[in-house]
Amino acid sequence: MPGKPTTHDNSWKLEDAKARFSEVVRRAHSEGPQRVTVRGRDSVVVISTEELERLTRAAPEKSFVEFMEGLGLNTLELEREADRGRDIEL
């Protein structure tokens, strides 16, 4: 049906997206990202500015030490194998 999303509820052919751009924008706000296809392949995605800001918001910078401490590795239980490998001649 012309003007309706194709294949998936959030996917539009380029010509349909151009003709119904207001609806594409409305759906991006109410239903989430809207994909636009060109010749049957994903080309672009229309998202709300709120979603863009959420995705591009800079995460607080951490030092490498803070990053490693945040991984919770101190609670990780590791055991080393008793096998010391194999003997080789050099």
Automatic annotation (TrEMBL):
Q: So which domain of life are we looking at? A: Bacteria
Sorted alphabetically, which Pfam families does this protein's record hold?
PhdYeFM_antitox
Protein task: Antitoxin component of a type II toxin-antitoxin (TA) system.
The family line of this record is: Belongs to the phD/YefM antitoxin family.
Q: What is this protein called?
A: Antitoxin
